[in-house]
Amino acid sequence: MRVITGEFRGRKLDTPIGNDIRPTSDKVKESIFNILMNDIYGRVFCDLFSGTGSLGIEALSRGARRCYFCDSSRDSVNLTKTNIKKCNAESRSVVILADFMRALSRIDEKVDVFILDPPYKAGIYEKCLQQIDYLDLLSPEGIILAEHGAADHMPDSFGRLTKVREKKYGKTKLSIYQCVTEAGQELQEEDNE
């Protein structure tokens, strides 16, 4: 597993042993960052179920100002810290060992991009959306990108959050949420054309 492009391009990242962590495939990772292309530089990210840290590190490599890496697994957090160190990205990284509810409550600034990639079938996407909305953590033009199984249904809206785009990549689907604003409506209209 390598960083695709940017400051840390080509940097090899450590991968997990066993099946406890499911890293995002390079194809899906490339698609995620093609979608986020204009929403990276100078932005604050949160890789909420960081696993290896690959997605957050890719964001930092492409110019994100800061990334919160959160995971409830000590092994995942240690792997994330190792990969952050390999990229000398400690000064722009905040690593939180906690379940997602406690991790979200420890973020003390608005986040521009949330990446949600929990274990599939865990039934926690709605709880994540609810907590992000409840704590008002998403910046006004921010987005939440949820990676989930292609057969899994994600709600069209949740609180102030509305699904504005959905893309399928084989067995994986990406659902993108924003706060209900004119910008969100424009994205929805573009996808319907």
From TrEMBL:
Transmembrane region(s): none
Pfam family, one: Cons_hypoth95
GO MF: methyltransferase activity
UniProt keyword terms in alphabetical order: Methyltransferase, Transferase
GO biological process: rRNA methylation
Keyword S-adenosyl-L-methionine among UniProt keywords: no
NCBIfam families found in the cross-reference section: 16S rRNA (guanine(966)-N(2))-methyltransferase RsmD
Entry-linked PANTHER family: METHYLTRANSFERASE
Name this polypeptide is given: 16S rRNA (Guanine(966)-N(2))-methyltransferase RsmD
Organism: Aminicella lysinilytica
